[in-house]
Write the structure tokens for this entry.
Amino acid sequence: DYGIVLAGEMVLILSDSEVELTAGDVVVQRGTDHAWENRSSHNATMAFVLIDAAFAPELEPLIEGDLMP
């Protein structure tokens, strides 16, 4: 998936770090746990392009939990 900051500022929160983003920044999100937060007092606008994906069959045994259909 792609996240594009169109206006304002956003913080991408990952399990081990945080990334501050401003207008024009693009994030490629590859299925990791994450959250978005607007910590400013101004509005922020983002566009997201969601792309369907599937794990390669040889990776399925490595997936924990019930992630596979």
Notes: The chain has a mean pLDDT of 88. The two ends are 19 Å apart (CA to CA).
